[in-house]
Specification:
mainly alpha; 4 helices; single chain; 90 residues
């Protein structure tokens, strides 16, 4: 697959790699896809801040296998859903 980037997008991508967060374009793309996938999780009832916190926690926790990653996401979102259901209004 070929992806065409604007000059601004390419500069931003290069800046991310220069900061040392990622070693390759493929790593940056993978991180971006993970972020998009997490923001589009069906039936997630938490706030955007909670979702962002989960993303940051995941990024800071080191590299997981894909199965470990999704198991962690499902556990955290399940916990948030349980907390929401048993909140003070219920």
């Amino acid at each position: 697959m070929t992806i065409d980037l604007s000059s601004d997008q390419e500069q931003r991508l290069q800046a991310v790699m220069r900061r040392g967060a990622y070693q390759s374009v493929a790593e940056v793309l993978e991180a971006a896809l993970v972020a998009v996938e997490q923001r589009t999780i069906p039936n997630f009832s938490g706030t955007q801040e909670q979702l962002d916190a989960l993303l940051l926690e995941g990024l800071a926790s080191g590299e997981l296998t894909e199965t470990e990653f999704w198991n962690t996401i499902h556990a955290k979102t399940g916990s948030l859903l349980d907390d929401h259901k048993s909140g003070p209004n219920r």
